[in-house]
């Protein structure tokens, strides 16, 4: 079956999590994604702890449907190999600090002079300008500076580190989104363009609900509590009788009414938006209600109640859940050197050009021979490049 991005070639200079996550999404849709790695250890995530067979478990989760070639981009011959590949590509993704690709001689101005149709996406922490342009950072720093940690606090007001890398993953998704938009625009303009994606910007752009209050002159307090982050009892998390937790998102009055009727507390319906001390008393009432049953009892009880109430599950429980299986959100892939491994599935379904798992995760420089041959290097030339360390020899599986 055809996939949406069949025929699109992507050169991916990114590493760790943000760029590789975005390029994997393109690969899932059929793009030929080529990881351009350094000739040392390659993508640092290759050596992350927790391994399945010969590969890092983390690396396995964001690098399927890709090829790999390791180049010394600081060497003139390595640079020329990259530029030859760039002339065959539709997309380039880099994740270096601003100015690095220019110093290497592989930036947008150079590549676009050779290939005017190139879509070149630079994914960075803070973007190509501004006072933080050259600052290093990781996911935690971006969500901190963007105000997200100030909205995500414990009962004492201490910021809580999110369990999911919001900036990294959303940054990768927005990069993929912008790349697809640029490819679509290219169909009309016949030329590519440069894309500047800042993970800090991405996180700021996700603050739609709290920003609405801020812009309207009703700033959220330092504890970060507002209607969708625990300000009211009807949209909150509660401990159950066995020390586990349930979530309730009864935002609309009909859902709150359904919940109150189901637990025999019709008297609470009119108190949904209580304020001040009355709201604190309502919190205590709802806490007591949830403590009256175990989590599994609540799961069974809520099956027939339309009140937006779901259990707080561990990852193992979430992966084993019937909804996860029904949506095919856990896939199995045969990975050389590892055997069958589980992969997270596709977050969307398509009727005509669905995403697919076509290639296992590449070993470092696994596809160097194929790619060098394609751009005209003879067997003798390839051997010389390998011997000189300009291109890394493929790893044996």
Describe the structure.
This protein has a 6-stranded parallel β-sheet, with helices on both faces. The mean pLDDT is 97. The radius of gyration is 25 Å and the shape is elongated. A hairpin with a 5-residue loop joins strand 9 and strand 10. It is built from 17 helices and 13 strands. The protein folds into 2 domains: 257 residues, Rossmann fold, CATH 3.40.50.10540; 86 residues, 2-Layer Sandwich (formyl-coa transferase, domain 3), CATH 3.30.1540. With 397 residues, it is of the alpha/beta class.
Contiguous helical run count: 17
Strand content: 15-25%
**Mean pLDDT across every amino acid position:** 97
Strand order of the largest sheet: 5-2-1-6-7-8
As for the CATH topology of the largest domain, it is Rossmann fold
What is the structural class? alpha/beta
The profile of the biggest β sheet is: 6 strands, parallel
Termini distance? 29 Å
* Poorly predicted spans: none
Helix content: 25-40%
Rg, Å, rounded: 25 Å
Overall structural domain count: 2
CATH architectural group of the largest domain: 3-Layer(aba) Sandwich
In short:
By secondary structure, this protein is α/β, with parallel strands linked by helices. The chain is built from 17 helices and 13 strands.
């Amino acid at each position: 079956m055809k996939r949406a991005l069949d025929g699109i070639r992507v050169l991916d200079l990114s590493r760790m999590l943000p760029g590789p996550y975005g390029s994997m999404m393109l690969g899932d849709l059929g793009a030929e994604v080529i990881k351009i790695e350094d000739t040392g250890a390659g993508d640092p995530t290759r050596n992350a702890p927790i391994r399945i067979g010969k590969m890092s478990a983390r690396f396995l989760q964001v690098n399927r449907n890709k090829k790999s070639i390791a180049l010394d981009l600081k060497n003139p011959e390595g640079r020329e190999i990259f530029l030859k590949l760039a002339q065959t590509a539709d997309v380039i993704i880099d994740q270096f600090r601003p100015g690095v690709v220019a110093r290497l001689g592989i930036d947008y101005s150079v590549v676009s002079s050779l290939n005017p149709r190139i879509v070149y996406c630079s994914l960075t922490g803070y973007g190509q300008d501004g006072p933080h342009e050259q600052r290093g950072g990781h996911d935690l720093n971006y969500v901190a500076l963007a105000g997200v940690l100030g909205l995500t606090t414990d009962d004492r007001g201490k910021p809580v580190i999110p369990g999911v890398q919001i900036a990294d993953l959303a940054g990768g998704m927005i990069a993929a989104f912008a790349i697809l938009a640029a490819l679509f625009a290219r169909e009309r303009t016949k030329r590519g363009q440069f894309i500047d994606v800042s993970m800090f910007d991405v996180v700021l752009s996700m603050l739609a609900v709290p920003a609405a209050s801020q812009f309207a002159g009703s700033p959220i307090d330092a504890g970060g509590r507002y209607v969708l982050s625990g300000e009211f009892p009807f949209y909150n998390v509660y401990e159950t009788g066995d020390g586990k937790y349930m979530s309730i998102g009864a935002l609309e009055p009909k859902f709150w009414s359904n919940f109150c009727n189901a637990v025999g507390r019709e008297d609470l319906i009119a108190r949904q938006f209580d304020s001040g001390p009355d709201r604190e008393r309502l919190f205590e009432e709802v806490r007591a209600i949830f403590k009256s049953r175990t989590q599994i009892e609540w799961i069974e009880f809520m099956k027939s109640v339309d009140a937006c109430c779901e259990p707080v599950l561990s990852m193992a429980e979430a992966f084993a859940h019937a909804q996860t299986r029904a949506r095919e959100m856990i896939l199995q892939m045969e990975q050389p050197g590892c055997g069958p491994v589980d992969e997270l599935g596709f977050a969307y379904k398509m009727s005509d050009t669905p995403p697919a798992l076509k290639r296992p995760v590449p070993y470092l420089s696994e596809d160097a021979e194929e790619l060098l041959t394609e751009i005209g290097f003879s067997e003798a030339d390839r051997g010389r490049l390998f011997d000189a360390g300009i291109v890394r020899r493929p790893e044996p599986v």
